[in-house]
Design goal:
The chain is mostly helical. 72% of the residues lie in helices and 2% in strands. It starts with a strand and ends in a 25-residue tail after the last helix.
């Protein structure tokens, strides 16, 4: 974007940082990252009273209620009912919801029963690498060197955090469940990018969350039994997990995915392990190892390399072709 100043010189605003057009998707992605990071702390806190299946279905029920309310509110204020996808696309959204809202959460919650937090984070964060590969092969995003280098640095940071927080307790079943969670995460995020071409982010998130809730309904009796004996704090955490890391975070993720490349957006999630360390320290009073801070710094550097646009210093070509005495054109 260029604009002429009073002397007719052209200022290149591309070199001044993020443009307003890209600010909203970046903000949406940031909301998702913070809320998903908080989910790890919430799952750890509620896991004392709730089993993986009960925690998943409770979270999805709360998320479905919130998203249904948002969909109804949009319909009332706009006067338009949600435009549901049809045929194969509707089936795709339903399967996507069952996989990401259902299977992913059950696998992740179950893995946490066998593995320490560091090992779980390391395994699950294979997903952004898989997303970059799948997006390059299936979505035509290619394999940018800058993205690959940034993800490598960020993954190294995750590995450092895992080493610092690991208790040395590694179980084969837990590792397998963590891999299932990572693969489900990667496939779901990649499929979502394609499905969003024919359905808006809110409608897709709503249908997906409801589908995930239906898929996890067999755990409802367990949820009822455990709620009767759980502390009010744990029950509140389950509800909050459904409202914020599920309903709100997946909604902002869907919007950001419509505006950004899947690989680039996935790379930004490498900030999550660093935030988990910080939140655990502040909320759960879990003092992190000094090495965790170094790993967190590596995550941030890697995300910066992978996602921040290189500032342009090349002058606008139009500024060199204007006739003498003629003011340079301005654009908004």
């Amino acid at each position: 974007m260029t604009m002429a100043d009073q002397d007719g010189r052209v200022t290149n605003h591309a070199s001044t940082g993020i443009s307003p057009r890209h600010a909203l998707p970046v903000l949406a992605a940031s909301v998702t990252i913070v809320l998903w990071a908080s989910a790890f702390v919430g799952v750890r806190a509620a896991g004392h009273d709730y089993s993986p299946g009960a925690l998943t279905v409770g979270r999805q029920i709360a998320g479905s209620i919130v998203l249904t309310g948002i969909v109804l509110a949009r319909a009332v204020f706009t006067g338009r009912a949600p435009r549901l996808p049809k045929g194969r696309r509707l089936l795709g959204v339903i399967v996507w919801g069952m996989a990401w809202f259902g299977l992913y959460n059950i696998a992740l919650n179950s893995a946490a029963q066998y593995l320490d937090a560091g090992t779980t984070a390391l395994i699950v964060n294979i997903a952004p690498v898989l997303i970059a590969v799948l997006a390059g092969l299936m979505l035509g995003e290619g394999f940018p060197l800058r993205l690959g280098a940034g993800m490598a640095v960020a993954f190294a940071g995750v590995a450092v955090i895992a080493i610092a927080t690991s208790t040395g307790r590694h179980d084969l079943l837990g590792v397998g469940l963590g891999v299932v969670a990572a693969v489900t995460y990667a496939c779901s995020a990649t499929a979502q990018k394609r499905l969003l071409e024919g359905v808006d982010a809110l409608t897709m998130t709503w249908i997906g969350c409801v589908a995930g809730t239906v898929a996890t309904l067999p755990f409802t009796p367990t949820l009822v039994r455990e709620t009767a004996t759980a502390s009010s704090t744990s029950t509140l955490v389950v509800v909050l997990l459904g409202v914020f890391p599920t309903a709100i975070a997946f909604l902002t993720w869907g919007y950001a995915l419509t505006q950004m490349k899947a690989g680039q957006l996935a790379a930004s999630t490498y900030v999550i392990p660093a935030l988990v360390v910080l939140f655990s320290w502040l909320i759960l009073s879990e003092t992190p190892a000094a090495l965790s801070f170094a790993g967190g710094a590596l995550c941030l550097v890697g995300v910066a390399i992978a996602t921040l646009r290189r500032r342009s210093t090349k002058p606008d070509d139009r500024s060199t072709t204007k006739p003498p005495g003629e003011r340079a054109p301005s654009s908004v």
